[in-house]
Amino acid sequence: MSETIVYNAKKIITMNPSRPEATHVAVRDGRILGAGSLSELQTWGDVRLDERFANKVLMPGFVEGHAHVMEGSLWSKVYCGWFDRSDPDGRLWSGAKSVDAVVERLQVAESALEDPAVAVSGWQLDPIYMNNITVTRADLDRVSTTRPVGVLHASGHIMNVNTKALELAGMLKTGHNHPGIPLGADGLPTGELKGPEVMTPVGPFVGFERNLLDADEAGLRNFAKLCVRTGTTTITDLASRMDEDIVDTMLRVTSEPQYPIRLIPFRFFLGLSASELVEAVVAMKKRATDRLRLGQIKIVVDGSIQGFSARLRWPGYHNGAPNGLWYIVPEHLSELFHLALAAGVQVHIHTNGDQATQLVLEKLAPALQAHPNPDHRFTLQHCQLADAAQFRLAAKLGMCVNLFANHHYYWGDEHYSLTVGPDRAMRMNACRTALDSGVPMAIHSDAPVTPLGPLFTAWAAVNRITASGRVQGGEERIDVLEALYAITMGAAYTLHLDGEIGSIETGKKADFAVLEADPTACVPMELKDIPVWGTVQGGRIFPAAEL
Question: Rounded CA gap, 262 and 56, in Å?
Fold first, then answer.
């Protein structure tokens, strides 16, 4: 018989309503044998007591239901974000607070390049903090006029490039008639590109290849480091191209003995017809492993609110900006829903604006009538502007929601004053309304859009504090236990994994977040500051200090 190890802790928060707290947990073969007292667990026979967590607090391993593995690879490029941010090795990078500061940072990177053909690539640009100015190709021409330069926005929905990049992509010409290609007074593109349709042609020339959404081997390992540092044991890659070589890479890396996370990639909807996409995803399921769960689809319906590319219902954007972009036509969306339901394939759907959310609700209803499935768990991702009526309808349709709680902090002030105005800003990411409407709910970071950190995400949902320190939409706050549930069992439920992870109870995976303090005992404003010691994943122990 395999060895049974019992870990004791200062406190074990189980998320099991039958036994919410314990002092000991028994692990055998990477699974939880039981949680309770030492004497109770000794009834299973010979056990070995491991006291390394005696002064720690254990929780179920955090589950991040909306992230992108690409962050692991993005750290090889130039960080251009507004906020200070830690990389996978724990180094803190300062924010760039102006276009000049971004340009200077890119210039430093350019001066270090020896090959004259190599592109300069940056990421996390956020002009909305810079008086919502447009970064132009002329700005990036200051970095170089001879090599291509490209910077990805924080939202991931916009890219800015220099003149050379447009030339190489064959886009430096007049006559463009596309909402994603703004034009200057000269009739030429400004260098700002909105949406994957227009970003993709230029991406390979600026270091963002066709597989921008995918990570390489080094990126997969870097991403895993971020997970350990934040207590995350299961995480999505919520939009991957899932080409054959990418799947092979994912299988190889995740099967390494010390790879510390369970990865759930969703196949991105672009590039295949609806029938081809569903067929490919169904075939992919056969290659799944415990640490790499395959066979799901991600659809993106609109863009981002802070990038003014999300689709909003009347009255539209508060500052009068034109309505955003549709990333999919209604007929294609409807066809995907019908085929996915018929094949038993789960779909998560990106909707930032309430007009996009409404379209999804209207198209899913007839698809469910044609292909009834009482446990489909199709999930609205972000769903930032949904109102109470939309949440109620989502609940009736058997949907889940995964709300972008971090937005309150990172862009709350901008939403209040610029994008949607005070009234709608108060209800954005309405966790309270969602729960009261009976919708199964998770909350997320959307890393790299905001930094991975489930405890920060929980803090954001509990406090709804903006970067300027205001409480925005206090009526939509949830309590600490509800937030902790959302980053464990709530997220697990949206992934059809609530029978395997999300709580510490008999039969589930031995996945734990190891914390230095009790999140249920601290002041709610301190929730984000609780140090993470590391993780246990499938019974394997990963101290953050040893990464």
Answer: 23
